[in-house]
Design a protein that fits this description.
Family: Belongs to the DHNA family.
CATH superfamily: GTP cyclohydrolase I, C-terminal domain/NADPH-dependent 7-cyano-7-deazaguanine reductase, N-terminal domain
Pfam families: FolB (PF02152)
InterPro entries: Dihydroneopterin_aldolase (IPR006156), FolB_dom (IPR006157), GTP-CH-I_C/QueF (IPR043133)
Function: Catalyzes the conversion of 7,8-dihydroneopterin to 6-hydroxymethyl-7,8-dihydropterin.
Number of helices: 4
Order of helices and strands: EHEHHHEEEE
Enzyme class: lyase
Helix content: 25-40%
Distance between the termini: 16 Å
Length: about 130
């Protein structure tokens, strides 16, 4: 059985995009995460070591968005998903899958709209 841990609305400031002004000026990106994992061991032991430390995960995701600009939100979403499936660069077998949504609410579109968002789901390797 897989449980789901969700963290939504992680606000970050990044310099991603294909246009020079996006790279220069930056903009807000909002990240939603859902991780599939078995939380029974953590519930039984009441030990943080038995589950995902979502405080540390959020800090790592925020840092990943705020560094190394890329052109596409597809690339950014893949970077974040890989981070969610690992811990310290090593595969975290507890996380079976990660669903990542990258919102780009200020995307340069010449129309009235409320959001641009990409959602990807990636499976862990373990």
């Amino acid at each position: 059985m897989t449980d789901e841990l969700s963290i939504t609305g992680i606000e970050c400031y990044g310099h991603h995009g294909v246009f020079d002004f996006e790279r220069r000026d930056g903009q807000v990106f909002v990240i939603d995460l859902t991780l599939g994992l078995d939380t029974a061991p953590a519930a039984a032991s009441d030990d943080l070591q038995e589950t995902v430390d979502y405080g540390s995960l959020v800090a790592a995701v925020k840092a990943a968005v705020e560094r190394d600009p890329v052109d596409l939100i597809e690339t950014l979403a893949a970077r974040i998903a890989e981070l969610c499936l690992s811990q310290g660069g090593v595969s975290d077998a507890r996380v079976e899958w990660a669903r990542v949504t990258v919102h780009k609410p200020d995307a340069p579109i010449d129309a009235t709209y409320s959001d641009v968002a990409l959602t990807i789901t990636r499976k862990g390797g373990a």
